[in-house]
């Protein structure tokens, strides 16, 4: 199962907002530039995050986007769920009535475990943790070694 660019890019945008939490709104153009994402595409991704009250926008000269709550309070799963919907690898996990074999199908149990594992991992990580990892990688990535 692959996450779409909606989930991957949207999560990167949220990490960028987490990196700058408490500093005021950030222009979408800046997020797009820092994360190397098309600004037009980012405009589409920010809408469901705004509807879900994860981000808010401010208009005007000092406007932009910011998280509505501290990044420690936002689980990665919540972001992915808003952008991707269900993580079920097959439709019968969320809607068993679509398959007459749902109650007897052994592979359905496997797909259910797969979904539960993904949800568990994504629920165990916050935006704050990803932001800290990003800061750490930026520090070590900027080191230059001269011989």
Structure characterization notes:
There is one protein chain. With 147 residues, the chain is mainly alpha-helical. It has one domain: Orthogonal Bundle (Arc Repressor Mutant, subunit A). 53% of the residues lie in helices and 5% in strands. It contains 6 helices and 2 strands. The protein has helices spanning 5-19, 28-35, 39-51, 76-84, 106-123, 127-141, and strands spanning 55-58, 64-67. Strands 1-2 form a two-stranded antiparallel ribbon. β1 and β2 form a beta hairpin. α1 packs across α4 (76-84). The N and C termini lie far apart (44 Å). 24% of the residues are buried.
Quick gist of this model?
The protein has 147 residues and is mostly helical. It has helices at 5-19, 28-35, 39-51, 76-84, 106-123, 127-141, and strands at residues 55-58, 64-67.
Defining key terms:
147 residues, mainly alpha, Arc Repressor Mutant, subunit A, two-stranded antiparallel sheet, 2 strands, elongated
| Helix count, DSSP H or I runs of 4 or more residues | 6
- At the third CATH level, what is the topology name? Arc Repressor Mutant, subunit A
How far is the first residue's CA from the last residue's CA? 44 Å
Query: Which overall shape is indicated by the principal axes computed on the Cα atoms?
Result: elongated
- Total discrete domains: 1
**Overall CATH architecture:** Orthogonal Bundle
Uncertain parts: none
Strand order of the largest sheet: 1-2
The ordered string of helix (H) and strand (E) elements is HHHEEHHH
CATH superfamily: Winged helix-like DNA-binding domain superfamily/Winged helix DNA-binding domain
Reading off the top of the CATH hierarchy, the class is best stated as: Mainly Alpha
The mean pLDDT is: 92
């Amino acid at each position: 199962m692959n996450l779409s660019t909606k989930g991957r890019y949207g999560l990167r945008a949220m990490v960028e907002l987490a990196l700058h939490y408490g500093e005021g709104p950030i222009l979408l153009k800046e997020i797009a530039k820092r994360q190397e994402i098309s600004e037009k595409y980012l405009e589409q991704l920010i809408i469901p995050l705004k509807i879900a009250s994860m981000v808010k926008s401010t208009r005007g000269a000092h406007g932009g986007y910011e998280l509505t709550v501290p990044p420690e309070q936002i689980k990665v799963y919540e972001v992915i769920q808003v952008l991707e919907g269900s993580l079920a690898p097959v439709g019968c996990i969320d809607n068993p009535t679509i398959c007459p074999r749902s109650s007897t199908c052994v592979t359905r149990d496997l797909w259910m475990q797969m979904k539960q594992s993904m949800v568990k991992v994504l629920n165990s990580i916050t935006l704050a943790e990803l932001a800290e990892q990003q800061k750490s990688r930026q520090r070590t990535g900027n080191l230059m070694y001269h011989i």
